[in-house]
Every structure is written in structure tokens, then in C-alpha cells.
Amino acid sequence: MKSLKYYEKNRRATWLELFFDLIFVVAIGKVTHILGHVHEEHFEPEQLWTFLLLFVPLWWVWSSHTIYSNRFDSDSSPHRLATLFMMLLLIVLSALIGGAIEANYPLVIACYSGIRIIISIMYISSRSKLNHRGEFSSRLGFALLASAVISLSSIFFDPPIRYFVAYFGIFLDVLFPVFVWGKLKPLPAHTEHLIERLGLLTLILLGESVISLSAGLSDNIWDRYNVMTAITGFVMICSIWWIYFDSFYLLSKNESSMSGHSLIYSHLFLFMGLALLANLIKHAILNDIVMLDFQVMSIIGMTLFFLGKQYGYFVAVPIIRKYIIQNTLIVLSLSGLVIFLPRVEYILAGLTATMICYVFLNFRYR
Q1: Please, are residues 358 and 331 in contact by the beta-carbon 8 Å criterion?
Q2: Are 30 and 94 in contact (CB under 8 A)?
Q3: Distance CA 349, CA 231 (A)
Q4: Separation of alpha carbons 214 and 200, rounded Å
Q5: Coil vs helix vs strand at 98
Q6: What span, in angstroms and rounded, lies between the C-alpha atoms of 65 and 169?
Q7: For residue 188, what is the DSSP state?
């Protein structure tokens, strides 16, 4: 049996993990693009709910595979085959997202539950890898298996009951690692590997922002407003990259006593914020959205991004908590002011300016 990569010096993401990300970006791109269209210049409630209810399970597929690999990856043949089969199910799931989801619901939930069952079996089979700490992997594996079966059982119910059953299973799935961790104290997270994985997925979602910007410029009659907005959108993407990665070194300095849960769970909000901001860039270029919807989604996107980004640092790096609170309040207050500018193009420019302001605020503790 191969030894765990957890104990390797200078551990980095494996080629298989990078391949997994490549497949995952297809699925997450399909979900993100749900917000790329408006109906009569409005986001419809069903559209927003569909985005949320699809984004969370996909985020958890990626996160749970990362949590497992962070501690138990041995790069063995069974691990590779299991991950490749998960990728196949992700491809099928991605294809179904673009169609009539309700009509394909049994297959959608079967693909998701299949992925979850594979991960649970991987945990159960990893019991022997950690000797006295193997109880953690087996207990968590059986708990995740139970939650996957609950979600899968939703196919026997009619709407809307089936959705409550499915998301009850997903809710348990997300919480089980925290509960099992608190009781059994398994291996702490491999910090450098975890933050590298999160950083790679963030780059993928920043790539979605570039795609949205490019899509907004395609087949569009250029004028001074959309040219200005395209430039502003690119500057915003660059600012997001700077804000996210400029302080990344602080996490890598954190010792390996962390569970990683604060980073994993807070990134759900960060990723949703990125998805919203990416689509707002496109709608600002096209100017195809009413002002109120743009204002609401702007403040939600900024709030999700900054809270998601800041919480992990707040937990992992206590020495800068005062600066985190101050900087977050300043940037969100400025965002609340700029959304009242008279055009969506100006609002986007104002939000970009607040991000640049945050970059300068960060210089105080760098």
C-alpha cells in the first residue's frame, strides 16, 4: 500500500486533482451561467433559487473530495479509479444542468448521490491507513453513506417534498465532518495543500469572470459606456485576484493544528459572491438589467465575497482580526454608497474603486 501523501515534504496538488478541477469547471460554469440571462431586464426568483440549489451541492462535491484527499490521498490505483469515476458522473451531471432539470431529476440526484457514495466508500476503506485514528474515517464514511442514501431516496417523492428530502441529506452531509471531527480529533488539515486547492478553484471562478466579460463584448455594438465597463470589469477581476492572493501567505504560516473547516465553509460564500460579480460585469456591459436588480445583486455579491474571504483569516490569523473587521466595514460601507450612482456602469466602476481601496487598506498589516 502506498504511503499517504499527507506526510510528504513540500506536498503539492497532484495531476489527478488538477484533472478533477478541469472537469469540475464545466459543471460550475453551467451553474454560474444561469445568472447570465435576465427576463424582461429582471432576475426571476426561480432563476436565483435554481442557482443556489445547484451551486451548493456542486461546491460540496469539490470540497468533500478535497477534504478527503487532503488527509487520505495515497495516489493509489483505487483512489485514481474512484476519482475518475466521480469525474464521469460530474460530466453527466453537467449535461443535465443545461436541460430540463425537473424532468431529469432522478438521474441528477442519482449522479450526485453516486459521487457521495464513492466518497463515503473511500473514507471507509481508508480506516487502515491511520491506525488508531482510522476510526474517524470509518465513522465519517458511514455517516456520509447514510446522508447520500437519504438524498437518493428523494426520487420516491413528488415535488416539493422531494427537494426537502434531498437537501436534508445534503445538509447532513455538510455537517457530519464537523461533528465527527469534534468527537474524534483526526489528523489536522495539511494547511499548504488545502490553501493551494482553494486557491486553484478561486482562479477557476476568476476565469469564469473573464468569460462573462468576453461574452458581454461579443456581438455588441461598442460605445463609450461598454468600453469603459469592459475596462472596469477587467480591473475589478484584477483587484479580486490581488485581494484574495496578496494575503495568502498568512494562511500558509498557520501551523497544522487547524481542521480547515473555516476555510472550506467560508469559501462557499466567497465562490457565490464571485459568481454574482462575474455575471454583473456581463450585465453592466450589455446594460440589460434594471437598476434595482443590479443594486441588490451588487451588494449581495460584494458582501458574500468579502465575508467569505475574511472569515477564514479571522479564524486562522487572530493577530489581524482588528484590521479585518475595520477593512471589511469600510469597504462594505463604501459599496453601500456607490450602488446609488445613476447608471449601472458607474456602479460597477464604484465597486471596483472600493476594491482598490481595500488593497491599499491591506498595506497596513502586510
Answers
A1: yes
A2: yes
A3: 9
A4: 21
A5: coil
A6: 17
A7: P
**Residue spans of alpha helices (H) in 126-223:** 134-152, 161-184, 191-217
Instruction: Report whether 342 contacts 307 (CB < 8 A).
Output: no
| Amino acid code (one letter) for 158 | D
Angle between helices 105-125 and 134-152 (to 10 degrees): 170
The answer to whether 98 touches 30, Cβ cutoff 8 Å, is yes
Q: Does this model's pTM top 0.90? A: no
Closest CA to 136 of 76, 179, 74, 73: 179
Q: How confident is the model at residue 39 (pLDDT cuts 50, 70, 90)?
A: confident
Q: What is the enclosing helix (H) or strand (E) of 346?
A: helix 344-362
Block residue for cell numbers 501551523: 255
The kind and range of the H/E element at 55 are: helix 45-72
Beta strand segments in 239-311, E = none
Give the total residue count for the chain: 366
Q: Give, to the nearest 10 degrees, the angle between helix 191-217 and helix 45-72.
A: 150
Query: Collapsing DSSP states into helix, strand and coil, what is residue 230?
Result: helix
Is the CB of residue 313 less than 8 Å from the CB of residue 320? yes
Query: For cell 478561486, what's the residue?
Result: 202
CB 11 within 8 A of CB 71: no
> How does pLDDT run across 312-352, given as a tens digit for each residue?
888 878 888 888 899 899 999 999 999 999 988 899 999 99
With bands split at pLDDT 50, 70 and 90, how would you rate the model's confidence at 192?
confident
For the segment 250-309, what is each residue's pLDDT rounded down to a tens digit? 777 655 456 677 888 899 999 999 999 988 888 888 888 899 999 999 999 999 999 999
Q: CA-to-CA distance for 176 and 168, rounded, in angstroms?
A: 12
Is 196 within 8 Å of 77 (Cβ atoms)?
Answer: no
Instruction: Give the SS3 label for residue 39.
Output: strand
In the block, residue with C-alpha cell 454583473: 280
